[in-house]
Amino acid sequence: MGGLRVIDIANNTATEKWIMLNDSAPRAVAITPDGRSLYTTTFGCSVVVVDTGSGNVVGHDIIIGCDPAGVDVTRDGHRLLVVNATGIIDDTVSSISVINTATNKVVGSDVSLGLPAGTTALGIAIIDDERDTCITCWDKQSGLGTIRIIPTLTILERVP
After folding, report:
1. Cβ neighbours around 134 below 10 Å, total
2. Which residue has the higher pLDDT, 34 or 87?
3. Tell me: the pLDDT tens digits for 57-110?
4. What are phi and psi of 103, to 5 degrees?
5. b/e string for 18-44 if b means 16 or more Cβ within 10 A?
6. What is the strand order of the sheet 46-51 is part of?
7. From CA 136, how far away is CA 129, in angstroms rounded?
8. Where are the domains positioned within the chain?
């Protein structure tokens, strides 16, 4: 069973409190701009939502694409972008899932990043002005890491 350890940011120390997740360990986290919700990808195929005020899990197992890795939230807090890091073992292509944070429902699955086969997206960061999104990648062929810059609008235009 996986969990998140609560940190006292005033003292920069770990507390004794743990937020227990489902049967999977946390992988990456993002917090909404208002600070009320924390989203974590898991080593399963899901995202878990935590109410930061209470520390309670309020959304279990939002099922998304296979192997969710990096995660980030738009500045307005309305959309969560999750990198599906398929392609590490085979030549399937990484994609993005988009979650509506008001409903915690997937509104876009397998949104293409336009990456070549064998290039695996691992992390995501939406740049402050939201014009561009940085995607960290690993290239199976060369064994090197790269950063791809993709216009954020290109991703969100493909979602209803």
Report:
1. 15
2. 34
3. 887 678 887 788 899 999 999 999 999 887 444 556 788 899 999 999 999 887
4. -110, -15
5. ebebeebebbbebebeeeebbbbbbeb
6. 26-31, 37-42, 46-51, 57-63
7. 19
8. 3-156
Element (H, E) at 8: strand 3-8
Q: How confident is the model at residue 1 (pLDDT cuts 50, 70, 90)?
A: low
At the second CATH level, the architecture of 3-156 is 7 Propeller (2.130)
Average pLDDT in the 27-56 region? 90
Amino acid symbol at 22: N
Q: Reading across the β-sheet that carries 132-139, which strands appear in turn?
A: 119-126, 132-139, 144-151
Is residue 94 within 8 Å of 111, Cβ to Cβ? no
